[in-house]
Amino acid sequence: MISAIRHSGIVVADLNAALTFWCDLLGFKMNRKMEESGSHIDAMLGLKNVKLTTVKLAAADGNLIELLHYHSHPDKQSWSGRINSTGLTHIALTVTDIDLLFSKLDKAGFFFNSPPQLSPDGSVKVAFCNGPEGLILEFVEMLQK
């Protein structure tokens, strides 16, 4: 039944900060930015009088992240999940140079649990980062064997 994963949606309180992180720091490209409202979006989301901005961002391989910024219906609570919470916990991204990315994001003030770690079998280096608004990201660099 499922032919592909279309995108992952992330609700953000600060759209400009999120775009800086995803585009300027991680290199995603903006595919589409839309101001959305009307009966169709109200029906889809199960809310009334919705006004939001959606931004589709593409990774180098074409996979998409969708940022959603609600102008109406803002949720004042930040996501407070932990890496071991039940439910969606993190997004894993394949990177080409994890040490360079770690340095770049560390200098920009983002928290990592540790510097990149080598897997026991030596096939990957991995680091977990707390991104904007508490989003947990796993960065993975595939190593040549």
Short description:
With 145 residues, the chain is of the alpha+beta class.
Report on the structure:
The structure is a single chain. The chain has two domains: 8-70, 2,3-Dihydroxybiphenyl 1,2-Dioxygenase, domain 1 (Roll); 91-142, 2,3-Dihydroxybiphenyl 1,2-Dioxygenase, domain 1. Helices cover 19% and strands 35% of the residues. It has three helices and nine strands, in the order E-H-E-H-E-E-E-H-E-E-E-E. The strands form two sheets. Strands 5, 6, 7, 8 and 9 form a five-stranded mixed sheet that branches. A four-stranded mixed sheet has the order 1-4-3-2, sandwiched between helices. The longest helix has 11 residues, at 15-25. It is elongated.
Classification by helices and strands: alpha+beta
- State the name of the first-level CATH class of the largest domain: Alpha Beta
Mean pLDDT: 91
Fold-level CATH name of the largest domain: 2,3-Dihydroxybiphenyl 1,2-Dioxygenase, domain 1
- What is the total tally of β strands? 9
Question: What number of structural domains do the residues give?
Answer: 2
Q: Please identify which CATH superfamily of the largest domain we are dealing with.
A: 2,3-Dihydroxybiphenyl 1,2-Dioxygenase, domain 1
- Helical content, roughly? 10-25%
Q: Which value, in Å, is the CA radius of gyration?
A: 17 Å
Largest sheet report: 5 strands, mixed
Which term fits the overall shape?
Answer: elongated
The ordered string of helix (H) and strand (E) elements is EHEHEEEHEEEE
Architecture of the largest domain, CATH level 2?
Roll
Q: Helical stretch count?
A: 3
- Kindly report how far apart the N and C termini lie: 36 Å
Low-confidence stretches: none
- Percent of residues in beta strands: 35-45%
